[in-house]
Amino acid sequence: MSRNLKALIGPSILNADLSQLFEESQKLLNNGADYLHLDVMDGHFVPNLTFGHPIVKCLRSKIKDAFFETHMMVSKPEQWIAPMADAGVNQYTFHIEPVTNVEDVCRKIRESGMKVGVAIKPGTPVSEVEKYISISDMVLIMTVEPGFGGQKFMENQMAKVQYLRENYPLLNIEVDGGVGPSTISCCANAGANMIVSGTAVIGAADQASTIKLLRDTVQTAIDK
Ligand SMILES: O=C(CO)[C@H](O)[C@H](O)COP(=O)(O)O
Ligand SMILES: [Fe+2]
């Protein structure tokens, strides 16, 4: 795999104690998280609700320097670009499934100063997202049906990751859903370099060593 790639671990705070969002986030960063993955759900694209830009803005006011990725599980990603940029988001990752003009959304995200992530659900073919690689900074391959934390990792999604890694050696490929110590080798060997892990990290007795294990496993595969 290309040595120019970097293993990055972005814990998801979805299943954390959200009444303590700042403390939980700071703890993850103190324990070695490379970035924070913030799951935004609108109750329409997915059957669940979380939080939006006002909460992200509050978190940003207390955490100045961490990289924030918002995973936008929403039906109208275009609607939230400006508010999320204003809230201090660094990367805006959105699902392409409900969007008719993906190029337009990518351009608007970039113009607002954020990095662009494009995401697909397990049922969406990788060819659907491949079209947008040249105008994106990262592709997210979901390894659960989006909507809830704590679900079982879908190993059959690794074929998509493998295909992308073989064809795009320098692409940032993120996996999200059911990823933890027992499934990380699978992700690392397929070629993912950006790892979202929610339940496995939040619930770990030792967060720092869990984050380190995830990162070391992925970096070892990259350096092979
Ligand atoms: O996008 C998501 C769900 O839609 C979450 O990021 C994901 O589920 C992470 O949590 P876990 O590691 O517990 O699966
Ligand atoms: Fe997510």
Automatic annotation (TrEMBL):
Keywords: Carbohydrate metabolism, Isomerase, Metal-binding. The keyword Isomerase applies. Pfam families: Ribul_P_3_epim. SUPFAM superfamilies: Ribulose-phoshate binding barrel. This is Ribulose-phosphate 3-epimerase. It catalyses: D-ribulose 5-phosphate = D-xylulose 5-phosphate. Belongs to the ribulose-phosphate 3-epimerase family. Its EC number is 5.1.3.1.
